[in-house]
Each structure stands twice: as structure tokens, then as C-alpha cells.
Model the fold of this input.
Amino acid sequence: MAKFNKVETGIEGLIIIEPQVFGDNRGFFMETFTKKDFEKLGIMDEFVQDNHSKSKKGVLRGLHFQTKFTQGKLIRVTAGRVLDVGIDLRHGSKTFGKWFKVELTAENKNMFYLPKGFAHGFIALEDDTEFQYKCTDYYAPEYDSGILWNDKDIGIDWEFEKYGLNESEIVLSEKDRVQQTLKEFIEKGIRL
Done:
């Protein structure tokens, strides 16, 4: 059996990775990254930075990307659960502007791989949710950018009701309240 199972999303390069988990009465063991096995999945990236955040239920982070030094990301949740979203912003992509979402949990242990050229965001579905991800380039604050989480032209269904959330109670950073729309992104001529 393969250490990692690749699940296609319908957007080229954007995949869900199901790890092989060994469990018994002591707990569990799993590999979260092995370069040679990820290469078999078509992921040739070199990861250079790991990040870790903790959020309470209803915190929405995103939708973030960098205009230069773009980052591919390998994402997983180690406590709690999130609804994770990637939007294709790759210039010339046949799925430009399309989004995909997946529920990542400490229980299902699945990972989400976003290649360079995607905006990324998530909403925490439980208190004390811990979110970890690897990046293919370093954080460059001067090129930090994003897309508005509720851009009507994109139309992400965050499924608030399903998860017992109220849109008016979503917790956002000031930066994420005023991000650009996809239309504004296109008008600026940014190429990812």
C-alpha cells in the first residue's frame, strides 16, 4: 500500500493527500512528508518554511497569496477542523478563478496541496484549531496580497449553517476585511 493516496480535485495541480495511518491501542503513527513519495504524486517542490497557527471557532483567515515569491503550500490540521479553500489565480489557467474546498480535520488527517499561483484561506470550525503548513518560498510581507473572502463574483460557499456558524459573527483581521476582489486583481494585471 502506498504511503500517500492522491485525490484529484478537478483543478490541475490542486490535490488532497490521504496519508497511510498506523493505529493501535497506543495511538497512531503516520508520515506527513517524504520527498520521494511526494515526487511519485507529482509534487516536486522544495519546502523552505513551516508555519503553525491556532484559531478559535469562526476565525476566517484569507484568502492570501504573494504577488512575487509565490508559495506552494502543503496544509494539514493537527487539532480541531477547518474548511479550507484554494482559488486558482494562475494566469492562463483553464480553471482561473475557480475554487475548491475541503474539510481538513485532526481526525481525518488529510492534507491539501496547493501549487504556486493559488489564493488560500480557511475558516476554523472548532475552538483551539491548530493549522500547520509547509511553504515553497519564504514569507515576503512587501508582496503579501489577497482576495476578498466573500467576493460575489467567486461565490465561495462557506457552509456557515452546516457548521453552526453565523456569517455576522465571523472573525476577520482588518486586512482580510478589505482585500481586493477578483475583478480588481484582474484589472491590476497581476500575473501569478
About this structure: The chain is about 10% helix and 40% strand. The chain has one domain: 4-187. The two ends are 36 Å apart (CA to CA).
